[in-house]
Amino acid sequence: MNSFKSKEKAEKNFKNIKAAVKGLYEILDLSLSEDDFYYEAGKDNITAIYKNLIELLLNEYGLRQLLKKIQNSEVDLNIVLNEYLANA
């Protein structure tokens, strides 16, 4: 894949991640009261995921090392979030 296509794909992936994070916030807003513990916990976790993703992307050397570990199957990518994902 050429570098222009790679850049385009990366930008699209990042936009999709931002949209997913926004969607999760919207689900929290629709489902729970802002005073609810689970609302705050969910919001904190979504924020932490997003901030850590940004930091990972900005850490070019660390990201390259992580990608090498993923390619060598040294990092477990299987995160079961619920029964739906487990059976998909």
Secondary structure tally, helices = 4
Main beta sheet: none
As a percent range, the share of strand residues is: under 5%
Rg measurement, Å: 16 Å
Q: What percent of residues adopt helix (DSSP H or I)?
A: over 70%
Q: Overall pLDDT, averaged?
A: 83
What is the strand and helix layout of this fold?
Layout: H1 3-31, H2 37-58, H3 60-71, H4 83-87
Structural notes for this entry:
With 88 residues, this protein is mainly alpha-helical. It has one domain. Helices cover 77% and strands 0% of the residues. The protein has four helices and no strands. Helix 1 runs antiparallel to helix 2 (37-58). The relative contact order is 0.06. The mean pLDDT is 83.
Could you write a compact summary of the structure shown?
Helix content is 77%, strand content 0%. The protein is mainly α and 88 residues long.
